Amino acid sequence: MDLLDSFLIRAALAGLGVALAAAPLGCFVVWRRMAYFGDATAHAAILGVAIALALSMPVFAGALVMALVMGVAVTVLSHRGLAVDTALGVLAHSSLAFGLVAVSFLTNVRVDLMAFLFGDILAVSQTDLLVIWTGAALVVGLLVWRWSALLLSTLNAELARAAGVDARREQMILTLALAIVVAVAIKVVGALLIAALLIIPAAAARPLAETPERMASIAAGIGALSALGGLWLAWELDTPAGPSIVCVAALLFTASSVFRATGKSGG
């Protein structure tokens, strides 16, 4: 029997693929305080799913396009003087609402809305695995390629300009990477939980790391552990897999926070 014939093996590989891409990218989301940006991009993916199903396109393509459109729209609006939190609030909630309404009109298409909102990792196919790992490789490749420029523009935009780094270009690269992660993760944890998988492992890694590179590596490890631990929890307790993954990540964040507090009091 082919190893990938086991739905649990496919689910584990899917969770690992998403975690290894989302967690390091989440470090930049945390450093730049872009948590709402991740939420808005994920919410827009639901509208992309509806459009893709209506046009008989791959769900990944629709989610990717709408997530990218959302990211670009927020970036453009923020540079034109509109408060970023206002732009995110308007675009995130309206795109989610339009997406849910659009899905309700798809009478000729069978849609499991809960799977897109909260994920359905146990239903991942071999084709889905190929898409997830291809997307993860693209994101990790982008981060490795642009690491120094992304880090410099994140830490100090003025210093980045002095060094010849275009901060807006790096912002667009982050937007592209975020859109890819959202598109591949929607099948695993769903649109409502993607932001959690981006932010929580990175936040948990922060107290344990002395350098940005180490934080990204630890975040990837925590993300992978969350994915596998969440799957195990879902299997043992018969709980939803996507939320279980996020619960394990939250527990690891709590442990990390306690470690930091204990370390400070002990010092």
A few lines on this structure:
79% of the residues lie in helices and 0% in strands. It has helices at residues 7-31, 35-54, 59-79, 84-104, 113-118, 126-155, 157-162, 167-185, 194-205, 212-237, 241-266.
Question: What would your notes on this structure say?
Answer:
- The protein is mostly helical and about 270 residues long.
- The chain has one domain (about 5-200): ABC transporter involved in vitamin B12 uptake, BtuC, CATH 1.10.3470.10.
- It contains 11 helices and no strands.
- The model has no long low-confidence stretch (mean pLDDT about 85).
At CATH level 2, the architecture is: Orthogonal Bundle
- Unreliable residue stretches: none
The portion of residues forming beta strands comes to under 5%
What is the N-to-C succession of helices and strands? HHHHHHHHHHH
CATH names the topology as ABC transporter involved in vitamin B12 uptake, BtuC
Helix content: over 70%
Shape type: globular
Summing up helix and strand content along with how strands pair, one would put the structural category as mainly alpha
* Rg from alpha-carbon coordinates: 18 Å
